[in-house]
Amino acid sequence: MREKYELLVQQVAALIQGEKNKVSVLSNVSAALHEAFPERFFWVGFYMVEDGELQLGPFQGSVACMHIKKGKGVCGSSWEKAETIIVPDVEQFPGHIACSSLSRSEIVVPMISNGEVIGVLDIDSTSTDTFNDTDKEYLEQIVKKIIETIV
């Protein structure tokens, strides 16, 4: 899996290099992530901080929640804590927001610019215990590259 992620990080960097259109960058990154791990990533997308809440941004997958309050669900908790959260079983996460009943595990990586969370990368899986520290390490690298490009 590390080898696949190493290539993915390089692919994402090349894909977004020099691009300043936030929607284009987030759209292509969500597609690249979704395609890289189709057996593991059921839903991949971004929520951006807008008007005091997380609002749905570009994504790949089924219909999703459009608004998430700070501290609510996994995405809102990642925003509030400004840290990556891995949830092995979403049904065991207090206050989980079930946008899809197919989601069983989740990882959310905050997008931090100048010490402030500006959005989150959210990835769901249809299996429990999908995400681990390897996912965290490489997804945080990808988010860092996105921030360097669009901010």
Mean model confidence by pLDDT: 96
CA-atom Rg in angstroms: 14 Å
**How would you write the strand order of the largest sheet?**
3-2-1-6-5-4
Query: Pairing-aware structural class of the strands and helices?
Result: alpha+beta
The amount of helix comes to 25-40%
Protein architecture, described:
With 151 residues, the protein is an alpha+beta fold. The chain has four helices and six strands, in the order ααβββαβββα. It has helices at residues 2-16, 22-36, 73-81, 133-150, and strands spanning 43-50, 53-60, 67-68, 85-87, 105-113, 116-125. A six-stranded antiparallel sheet has the order 3-2-1-6-5-4, with helices on both faces.
Topology:
Elements: H1 2-16, H2 22-36, E1 43-50, E2 53-60, E3 67-68, H3 73-81, E4 85-87, E5 105-113, E6 116-125, H4 133-150
Antiparallel strand pairs: 1-2, 1-6, 2-3, 4-5, 5-6
Keywords:
4 helices, alpha+beta, globular, 151 residues
Summarize the structure.
With 151 residues, the protein is α+β, with helices and mostly antiparallel strands. The protein has four helices and six strands; from the N terminus they run H-H-E-E-E-H-E-E-E-H.
